[in-house]
Design a protein that fits this description.
The complex is a heterodimer of chains A (about 625) and B (about 100).
Chain A lengths: L8 H16 L8 H26 L7 E9 L4 E8 L1 H24 L6 H20 L3 H19 L6 H32 L4 H9 L5 H18 L8 H4 L5 H10 L4 H8 L1 H6 L2 H21 L6 H21 L3 H29 L15 H15 L5 H16 L2 H26 L6 H6 L5 H16 L6 H6 L6 H4 L12 H22 L4 H9 L1 H8 L4 H48 L6 H23 L1
Antiparallel strand pairs in A: 1-2
Chain B lengths: L3 H21 L3 H26 L5 H31 L13
Classes of the chains: A mainly alpha (about 625), B mainly alpha (about 100).
Chain lengths: ~625, ~100
């Protein structure tokens, strides 16, 4: 029987696949893709067994999670463990990583077929999966940080997978550098926490924080630094700029890394360290809420005008991540993790369905698509399910999770926050409907692409349909009855909670209000964008400044480019000048030149003429004699 | 008996003449001869002190003989160098031989 204490097997499986693929993958049939997929599916199966073990353990009194692992670094009294921690929060995150991950791996076999670096793709994806599972399971901050950087590195590799394309190479670089800015803060936060606690172990740090071992200001600073890491990784304002560009990677990468797993690592980390955020000054959670809200509004508005299908979905991901942050800012780990869980399914679904479109038409912009429902009915159906789930229509999964967040915000936040959230709900439905209408309905805008379009092969269609099923049913986990039917202690509120487990209550006001809003938005989108989309063109013309503002993504990319060009590069030029002129020319070459000059001066003494030497010897003898005589006297 | 100061004065005179010769001459053969003068000045000192300090022994005298022997060997070597110099440079003037430097 595999129990929670064997959690280390989960990351070890894909890591083993990575090593084998890297070393001998090219000699294996099908470049060894079956190893990567097999390892991932095996991890999913083993995780299911561990989940059963967890459910059994939850029945016992005082269960606090299971730790396993070995010592990694050991000094006299200080040690760092290669430790794995398994509890409810871990399980939810692992469910997304292993289940959604397996489906995406299977899908990749079809999507990446014929790629010259087919084997390398699966190797890198396996390494990513291993790193992600380590991140989720880590029981101390140092291991967490290592895995955190490893997933960032894999993301870099996979965004730049087609690095022959300049835009892909640039996007990979941008993603790596942007998230790195947040990571610096994360590392500072870890060091701050460790400095007072003397340990990296998460639970010992929580213990110390709850006993008031940290001063309030100190802890607030530390958790804000941790949050900086989440801002980078989870693409929150103002470090969100890398995620839309990350769509340059292959679509399965977008689905796995930049929607379902890696980008929610920031949300997971904040949820995991929630005891610290609670113990800190309230301003910490206010910052989380504020940045989450800014992210939500920014992404929801920009998504209205973006043309590229994958980029629209990327902005919707940023939107969802912002929502999760708002939920965390409202102290509702339940709502945030529930949304994270269902989001993993429906967002992967959206990406993979978009991948089918991309694969079939070789077109990525809505300008060149349209009317594809006739050619790809099943993909269109699945995409529609994903759209409605993202929009939050009853009874799709997004509806339940989104309403949990609305309830959490109502209970914990002021009016302004709630108003913004409700506006974002309407905007989300609007841009998701726009995307569906422009892609699958109406008249084909590029007849050539339309002619070549075809329904995807089974290996690509099956994961999409399974995810579509997930996008419908995962939301029902909100109900206690559903959870109990699955042998869980109950609904999500009884599985993941901050202080007390709570049952699900149908939030009538939220449910009715948001449903009405979503339906109205969907109808409005149908009016604006269906057919020739005349109202949309009219609005773009009439509201030209606003359209320009959104089209240019609030000029944030331009602002950052300006900062890089004018400040970073200018500073770099100054430093380079200092290095060249002061350090090199003056310091290194200068001292060498001084020595050479002195040598040249002293060299003039050496004439080579014997009489001069003879005179010097004689003169020296006379001087020495004179000195001796004077000294004697 | 002649006082030792006379011998010492003679030795110093010879040595000084030798030094003057080494410093003022340009011809390598003349310089060698001046060096011989310096050596003989030293020899006179050695012999004088030997006779005055320990007449029963021959230590100083033997020293003088050694100096003469070594001086002879040195002159043989030095003249050979001078000869090669003249063959190669067509000069015996030390002013013109200054290549042994940086």
């Amino acid at each position: 029987m595999v129990g929670m204490e064997h959690a280390w097997v989960l990351p070890a499986l894909p890591f083993g696949a990575f090593v084998v693929l890297l070393l001998v993958g090219r000699y294996l049939p099908r470049r060894g893709d079956f190893l990567a997929v097999g390892a991932m599916v095996a991890a999913a199966v083993l995780f299911s067994l561990m989940l059963a073990d967890l459910v059994q353990a939850l029945g016992e009194e005082g269960f606090q999670g299971v730790t396993s692992g070995i010592d990694w670094l050991k000094f006299d009294t200080f040690r760092v463990r290669l430790g794995f921690f398994f509890d409810n929060l871990t399980a939810v995150m692992l469910a997304v990583v292993t289940y959604v991950g397996s489906l995406i791996f299977i899908y990749s076999m079809g999507y990446m077929q014929g790629d010259p670096r087919y084997g390398w793709f699966f190797a890198a994806m396996s390494l990513f999966a291993a790193s992600m599972m380590t991140l989720v399971l880590a029981d101390n901050l140092l291991l967490l940080y290592g895995a955190w950087e490893a997933v960032g590195f894999c993301s870099y590799l996979l965004i730049g997978f087609w690095h022959e394309r300049r835009s892909a190479a640039e996007a990979a670089k941008k993603a790596f550098i942007t998230t790195r800015i947040g990571d610096v803060g994360f590392l500072i936060g870890i060091v701050l926490l460790w400095r007072e606690a003397g340990t990296f172990d998460l639970r010992e740090i929580f213990q110390l924080a709850s006993e008031g071992g940290y001063s309030s200001e100190y802890l607030t600073l530390a958790v804000l630094m941790l949050f900086a890491g989440a801002v980078g990784k989870s693409a929150q304002f103002p470090l969100h700029v890398w995620l839309p560009d990350a769509m340059e990677g292959p679509t399965p990468v977008s689905a796995l890394i930049h929607a379902a797993t890696m980008v929610v690592a920031g949300v997971y980390m904040v949820a995991r360290t929630m005891p610290l955020f609670e113990a800190a000054d309230p301003v910490a959670l206010q910052v989380v809420t504020a940045l989450g809200l800014a992210t939500v509004m920014l992404s929801a508005t920009v998504a209205l005008v973006v043309k590229d299908v994958k980029r629209v979905i990327a902005y919707s991901t940023i939107n969802s991540l912002g929502l999760m942050m708002v939920a965390l800012g409202s102290r509702s780990v339940t709502a945030a993790m529930f949304y994270l869980f269902v989001h993993g399914f429906f967002k992967a679904l959206l990406f993979l369905a978009a991948g089918n479109v991309l694969h079939a038409t070789d077109r990525g912009a809505v300008d060149e698509l349209g009317g594809l429902r006739a050619k790809m009915p099943l993909t269109a159906l699945a995409f529609g399910v994903g759209t409605l789930a993202m929009a939050g229509l009853f009874p799709f999964s997004g509806f339940w999770a989104k309403d949990e967040i609305l309830v959490a915000a109502r209970e914990d936040q002021g009016v302004a926050v709630n108003v913004v959230l409700w506006v974002s709900v309407a905007l989300t439905a609007l841009y998701m409907a726009r995307l569906y209408i422009l892609t699958f309905l109406g008249r084909p805008r590029d007849p050539h692409a339309y002619e070549h379009a075809h329904e995807a092969s089974l290996v690509m269609l099956a994961p999409v349909l399974l995810l579509a099923l997930g996008a419908v049913v995962t939301g029902f986990w909100a109900f206690d009855q559903v959870g109990e039917a699955l042998a869980l202690p109950g609904g999500v509120g009884k599985f993941i909670y901050l202080h007390e487990p709570h049952s699900f209550e149908m939030p009538v006001a939220e449910a009715a209000g948001s449903s009405a809003l979503v339906v109205a938005s969907l109808l409005l989108a149908g009016f604006i964008w269906s057919g020739e989309a005349r109202p949309a063109q009219l609005m773009a013309q009439r509201l030209r400044p606003l359209y320009q503002l959104l089209w240019n993504k609030y000029y944030m990319d331009d602002l950052y480019q300006w900062i890089v060009n004018r400040i970073v590069l200018a500073t770099g030029a100054m430093v380079a000048w200092f290095d060249r002129v002061v350090v090199n020319d003056t310091g290194v070459d200068g001292s060498a030149g001084l020595t050479a000059l002195w040598g040249w001066i002293m060299r003039q003494v050496q004439t080579g003429k014997m009489p001069n030497y003879a005179l010097a010897i004689a003169g020296g003898a006379v001087v020495i004699g004179a000195v001796v005589l004077v000294a004697r006297m | 008996m002649i006082p030792i100061q006379h011998f010492l004065l003679l030795g110093a005179l010879l040595f000084s003449l030798g030094v003057y010769g080494v410093l003022s001459r340009r011809n390598v053969v003349l310089i060698l001869m001046a060096v011989e003068l310096m050596l003989q000045g030293v020899n006179i000192n050695l012999v004088a002190f030997a006779v005055y300090l320990s007449p029963q022994e021959f230590r100083g005298l033997i020293f003088a003989l050694f100096v003469i022997t070594v001086a002879a060997a040195e002159v043989g070597l030095a003249l050979a160098i001078a000869l090669r110099l003249f063959r190669n440079r067509a000069t015996a003037n030390v002013d013109e031989v200054d290549t042994l430097r940086w």
